[in-house]
Design goal:
This protein is mostly helical and 56 residues long. Helices cover 39% and strands 0% of the residues. It is elongated. The termini are far apart. 0% of the residues are buried. The mean pLDDT is 82.
Length: 56
């Protein structure tokens, strides 16, 4: 089971689809996942913002 917390700077959908095997399990062999194809064509609509860091 994948972590439900998306790391900073990552797209929640990309993170979930990459780490949760149950999402793509229902697909037939060589069948494309439509949300993944949409992401490849149009890019990620939302990224989790990184926390502002200060080194001093």
């Amino acid at each position: 089971m994948a972590s439900t917390h998306t790391p900073a700077g990552q797209c929640p959908q990309c993170w979930q689809h990459a780490h949760d095997r149950s999402i793509h399990r229902r697909l037939k062999p060589r069948e494309d996942c439509q949300p993944c194809v949409d992401h490849m064509n149009n890019g990620c609509p939302y990224l989790v913002p990184k926390t502002k860091s200060s080194w001093w």
